[in-house]
Design a protein that fits this description.
Length: 414
């Protein structure tokens, strides 16, 4: 931890109401407040700054289509840009911390002439030749052909997000900021604090020096392993989770459970309240729950079958658990591609994941020690991940200046 003899700063956080993103920002806020800084959240829904983040909407209400998601995001950015500048100026803010998925943070910071640090709660958006966009499950390809393919994908993504892009450009024009049609146009040019741990993301040798891979931002305590789950020590234990928003996929969860049992494993399935009791009873697993203390469960698991959500992936790496990734939405294809690329697991397309293919993949992951060895390599490094404390060290360095780099141990420079 870096201690400065400077007075506490006024910091405004701009974060969309996504539960996992809010959780990460809360961890940063707690660490900042513990060091004497004042933290406020810019809330689009109430057009004001709050001392605590707004409560995210219930997960089941967020199952909208892509067009609805884009429209909601564009409306949120518009309201933040209309009301945010006056609110932030009134707080005499010294710094804006902006989620990479909310371009209003960068637009407002540039308009007000304030320093801004980007926070990558998901995979970093920062452009890098050959590094695919987060929602693409491509391999890294810095060759001329790969760079051109990526440029074409970015043009298509900009077209798909054109409703959001028009809102961004409207406010950029009003403030004389130039072209701002892509989320990457609104990132901090100096620093991105990423939850991805060192060695998990693709290399970023050209434009990625500003991206600092710090590991997850969260508190350490976790609930204990459930008393009523009695594991058979002679059988491998597989934990299955498709996350909160995808827990309604009964057919896929049942198919995964059958495949795991076919491979000789005992299975725990969670569905995040996506299923009724009657639906959950149709899954052929030893245990089916709405929620479990995931970190405690992973500490005992031999394998995790996951949707490749970043939070679950980080917890698997932290515990040294290999993964079978079945990406379903958002940046999950990109996370799954990195799971496979770093050797900590395999990926399958859910569309083509038959019971036979799933069972073969589960057997391979359980039988071949190389996958667990790679996952455990991350687990051995996890205690050195700087996390939220290291992120705040960098924030304070950005605010106050520091001769040395306080959070670049050998693990981050490698």
């Amino acid at each position: 931890m870096v201690l400065h003899d400077k007075p506490g700063s006024s910091i405004v956080m701009v974060c969309p109401p996504y539960p996992s993103h809010v959780q990460a920002f809360e961890a940063l806020a707690r660490e900042l407040r513990a060091r004497g800084h004042q933290v406020r959240y810019l809330c689009a829904d109430s057009a004001r700054c709050l001392p605590v983040p707004p409560v995210p909407p219930p997960a089941r209400q967020r199952l909208a289509g892509l067009r609805d998601d884009i429209a909601q995001g564009a409306d949120r950015t518009d309201r933040l840009c209309r009301h945010g500048p006056a609110l932030i100026a009134g707080l005499r803010a010294d710094l804006i911390l902006g989620d990479q998925t909310e371009p209003a943070a960068g637009l407002i910071a540039e308009h007000l002439g304030l320093p801004m640090i980007s926070v990558a709660c998901a995979l970093p958006f920062d452009p890098e030749p050959g590094v695919p966009l987060p929602f693409l499950g491509w391999r890294c390809d810095p060759s001329p052909k790969g760079v051109e393919r990526l440029a074409s994908a970015r043009r298509i993504a900009t077209w798909v997000m054109s409703a959001h892009g028009r809102v961004m450009q409207h406010h950029a024009d009003a403030w004389g900021l130039g072209r701002r049609r892509d989320f990457a146009d609104c990132l901090s040019p100096e620093l991105t604090l990423a939850q991805t741990p060192p060695g998990f993301d693709y290399p970023r040798p050209v434009g990625g020096a500003r991206v600092r891979h710090l590991g997850p931002f969260r508190d350490a305590p976790t609930a204990p392993f459930p008393d009523d789950i009695r594991l058979d020590p002679d059988r491998p234990f597989v934990f299955v989770s498709l996350g909160t928003l995808q827990g309604h996929r009964l057919a896929l969860l049942a198919r995964i459970a059958r495949a795991c049992r076919r491979a000789g494993a005992q299975v725990l399935v969670t569905h995040g309240q996506g299923l009724s009791a009657a639906q959950a009873a149709r899954i052929p697993a030893e245990w089916v729950r709405a929620f479990v203390p995931q970190r405690a469960v992973l500490a005992r698991a031999d394998l995790c079958v996951t949707h490749a959500g970043l939070n679950t992936t980080l917890e698997c790496l932290e515990q040294g658990v290999p993964m079978l990734a079945l990406p379903l939405a958002n940046d999950q294809p990109g996370v799954a591609a990195r799971i496979a690329a770093c050797g900590a697991g395999l990926r399958l397309s859910p569309r083509f994941a038959t019971e036979r293919r799933l069972s073969a993949a589960v057997r391979r992951l359980l039988d071949e020690g190389a996958f667990r060895a790679q996952a455990q390599r991350f687990a051995r490094q996890a205690p050195a991940w700087p996390g939220a404390a290291g992120a705040v060290d960098l924030i304070e360095t950005h605010l106050f200046g520091q001769a040395s780099d306080p959070v670049t141990p050998a693990i981050l420079r490698a």
